[in-house]
Amino acid sequence: MRLARKRLLSWYRANKRAMPWRETRDPYAIWISEAMLQQTRVETVIPYWERFLSRFPDVHALATADLDDVLGAWAGLGYYSRARNLQAAARVIDQDHGGKLPDDAETLQTLPGIGRYTAGAVASIAFDRPEPVLDGNVKRVLARLLGIRKDIGQSATLERLWEEAGALARGPHPGDLNQALMELGATVCTPRAPRCESCPVSQFCDAWAKGDAESLPIKARKKAARKVEAVTALVVRRGKALAVRRPSRGLLGGLWDLPGGDLVAGETPRAGLTRALRERAGLEISRASALPSQYVDGSRSARRLRGSQMARPSRNLLPAPRQPDRQSTRPAHLADRPILELTGR
Ligand code: SF4
After folding, report:
1. Which domain holds residue 122?
2. Is 50 a catalytic residue?
3. Residues in the ligand 1 pocket, defined by CB under 6 Å
4. Is this model's pTM higher than 0.85 or not?
5. pLDDT 10s digits, 231-247
């Protein structure tokens, strides 16, 4: 293990890809990069990270920013709960930790949105703490290296992987060691066609010796995506479309959207649209024309979205009392521009 660790460290130092967050020791900047890198490619993250840090250069700036500004800086990165959690955690750090990120994984995990992985990454990379990380790349590398031929979705297998990652992290330069494992998984020990002949730890690798690297790690088949029927309305008045803010929890929480929602069991599209407009926009409909339905695939569900257009809402709608989370926006380019941009942010 010690020799494998040494090889990984020297390989990482010679081969690591240039990334701007690797040039800093600022825990805040490292934390932001870790939050952005979840489910997102490095090349996509770089310009977002640079813009985010110039707009919110420290914990206090993020903690005191308007949530819409934070979501606007995040627009296009997806998984928006990450941005909301970042700000919620920044507020706790600002108020309870004097604006400085805690330097231990245990305290970091008490903050909103910071789980075991992010806590380990920040503690090891920013503070040199011997804490492990276990993302998809590290799971794959360790499963192959150690010949773990059990379903990595099982909690016992996952716990074993955390223990092995923890054993590797103990020693000099834990942050570099963790990054070496992630880098190896991203560039050499890839899901398909791993480049074992260029691997710095091939001589210790069980999967390489047995020739079954590509079949590891073992993952049980995922459940089929849940099918959801949804409705949405394009309410147009004087060249502008009505936008409403989504509930702060759940899918795309807190963002601006066209009014609508998921149908409940047994509900017709018409009844669902009537309910959704009443609940989300405080409007009553009397007439609407159907737009073509579309399928939208998400990570956990496949939605069939039925649209309705109300081009003359003065006839179709009975305005309800003014809603703070309603505003109108120009309907042009709705398909290809972020809604927050259209609402003038
Ligand atoms: S030898 Fe091959 S399978 Fe083993 S860790 Fe290296 S790249 Fe992965």
Report:
1. 2-215
2. no
3. 141, 144-145, 188-189, 194, 196, 199, 201-202, 205, 207-208, 213
4. no
5. 888 777 777 777 887 77
